[in-house]
Amino acid sequence: MNWQILVENWREFLFGGGLLAGAVLVGILLHLLLSLIAGIVLRRSEERNQIVLPSVIRHARGPLRLGLPLLALVIVLPFVSLPDHLQNLLRHGISILTIVTVAWMVARSGSVLEDYLFEKYRLDAEDNLKARKIHTQTRYMKRVFAVIVAVIALALILMNFDRVRQLGTTILASAGIVGIVLGFASQRSIALLFAGFQVALTQPIRIDDVVIVENEWGRIEEITLTYVVVRIWDKRRLVVPISYFIEKPFQNWTRVSADLLGTVYLYCDYTVPVQSIRDELQGILEQSEDWDGEVCGIQVTDTSEHTMSVRALVSASDASRLWNLRCQVRERLIDFIRREFPESLPRFRAELGQQADTS
Fold first, then answer.
1. pLDDT tens column, 234-249
2. N or C: less crowded end of the chain, CB within 10 Å?
3. pLDDT tens digits, residue range 105-135?
4. Which fold has domain 260-344?
5. Fold classification of 139-257 (topology level)
6. Residues in CB range of 239: below 8 A, 6 or more apart
């Protein structure tokens, strides 16, 4: 019967198929035309240092590549003569693809907001405390937002299938048992997810924070829904469950501000003139680009039977500068003592006496 209808109305079906194919082709050509225009607008916007418009253009290209042909199909569909089952199948497919396109566009809007905030609050600024807070919250919330959009889109797609809707009663009836099983099975995952929310809101760590984790010095490079990537100073990556930063102690050197104090210890003989070392340290720091001009001090902090411990206390605007400054101070103070007061280097003293003559 279907073949008989097809033979009798082949011209209408051929016209309808050609109209649909032409609509898709028009949508593709329209996307190409808009891409060319967007490229011109994008270059001009970047020259003017605009943020939002270039970001919208970049992130909208993907959804529009699918959305424009769909829009063309929706426009020509009423003028197409097809069998009812083909018409319903086509409408069904367009409905599903429309949900995918809208969800894709909504998820991309989170990326536009991310680009705007990342450009406004840059991590390469001198004082980037607020920027690190914004980056941490934005990246985490963007992932959560994308997951929520995907779940809603999947639910809407499933509602387009009658068989799924008919199974709703059965699914709801068994939801209690399934919920208990899934609860036990995903207890760890749910705990990680809630730990991620807690980290994003309370922010014990932020993107680009300097931390000491598992006795390793590094910076927070990435915060995901379940784990954190720490970039170690020697370019290794330490991957830590996000719950680690809720359950275990760790050091955050940039929690409130990036500036830090650092110490350099020297072990000298008791004859060393401490004031001369103090004056030399002041001169070293004044010549250094890493010193922030805040703290400069020399103190004798300990003594032993052979030496005394001289501590140099210095400050810098961040951990990297402080490390360089400490190394520089240590090298130059050692060279100063060796050059000016070589007799004050650590030494052992012994007293030799003459043995009594018993003859």
1. 989 999 988 888 888 9
2. C
3. 898 888 888 888 888 888 777 667 778 778 8
4. Alpha-Beta Plaits (3.30.70)
5. SH3 type barrels. (2.30.30)
6. 227, 228, 229, 230
